[in-house]
Design a protein that fits this description.
Helix content: 25-40%
Distance between the termini: 32 Å
Order of helices and strands: EEEHEEHEHHHEHEHEEHH
Number of strands: 10
Structural class: alpha/beta
Largest sheet: 6 strands, mixed
Shape: globular
Number of helices: 9
Strand content: 25-35%
Bound molecules: adenosine-5'-diphosphate
Strand order of the largest sheet: 6-7-8-3-9-10
Radius of gyration: 18 Å
């Protein structure tokens, strides 16, 4: 359903992605693991052209976009099919929780306010924040803010939700509530790609694991295979360090 073909990305002379090929099926939960600096976040950002690939192609269903010559129209269309959950939440500080979730529906998707409100209340209920709809981000814990971030992505009903290290800015005691919301969404069959350091979570929730190093995919497969029987030495070394 989602296909990344030969994705390359360099920042100046720094070649960060060196030919990434990845297929994501509908309902897959793909966990991307790898050492710091291996290109995980850049790859995720390339999926919705927050970073434009220098080369390669992304297709989602029948839709195709090329890194070399994307039209503005194509980029807009791609962004409608994807939603990103950021490490630092990126909420609007001067808007309430409900307004934060409604914003994308009203402004980007041009939904009538009433409909946007209904959808937003529904997803806020799903992430356990029904009692916080009128709060401002500064009145929430980091875990609650990230759950707003997830609700905002979910409300857009995208083809895929992209999570960029969604728990790495959180105090340890707040990680669990965010992971359990992600787990719940995964159980609903939402397609997701998650860059994460949480190896045990990745092992439990993902249907497909990708291990990156040096801008390439070193190994990928089902969690059972990659975690229990890694084929590559680099994967083994990484897992030994982090588990
Ligand atoms: P990871 O997520 O695996 O830690 P990143 O994708 O964040 O890796 O970064 C990979 C490399 O790309 C790093 O060397 C980083 O400095 C570089 N990089 C990432 N984003 C930018 C940018 N916007 N401009 C310049 N270099 C960048």
């Amino acid at each position: 359903m989602i296909q990344l073909t030969n994705i390359h990305k360099a920042f100046g002379k720094n070649k960060v992605l060196n030919g990434i090929h990845l297929t994501v099926e509908k309902g897959d939960v793909v966990a991307i693991l790898g050492p710091s600096g291996s290109g995980k976040t850049t790859l995720l950002r390339c999926v919705n052209f927050l970073e434009r690939p220098n080369e390669g192609e992304i297709s989602i269903g029948d839709f195709k976009i090329s890194g070399k010559h994307p039209s503005k129209q194509d980029i807009l269309q791609l962004r409608k099919k994807t939603a990103m959950v950021f490490q630092h939440y990126n909420l609007f500080k001067h808007k309430t929780v409900l307004e934060n979730v409604m914003e994308g529906l009203v402004i980007a998707q041009k939904q009538p306010k009433e409909e946007a409100r209904r959808t937003s209340l529904e997803v806020l209920n799903k992430v356990g924040l029904s009692d916080k709809i009128d709060a401002y981000p500064s009145q929430l814990s980091g875990g609650q803010q990230q759950r707003v971030g997830i609700a905002r992505a979910l409300a857009l009903n995208p083809e895929v939700i992209l999570f960029d290290e969604p728990t790495s800015a959180l105090d340890p005691e707040l990680v669990g509530e965010v992971l359990s919301v992600i787990r719940k969404i995964a159980d609903d069959g939402v397609t997701m790609i998650i860059v994460t350091h949480e190896v045990s979570f990745a092992r439990e929730v993902s249907s497909h694991v990708v291990f990156m190093d040096g801008g390439v995919i070193v190994e990928q497969g089902e969690p059972e295979d990659v975690f229990v029987r890694p084929r590559e030495e680099r994967t083994r070394q990484f897992l030994k360090r982090v588990t």
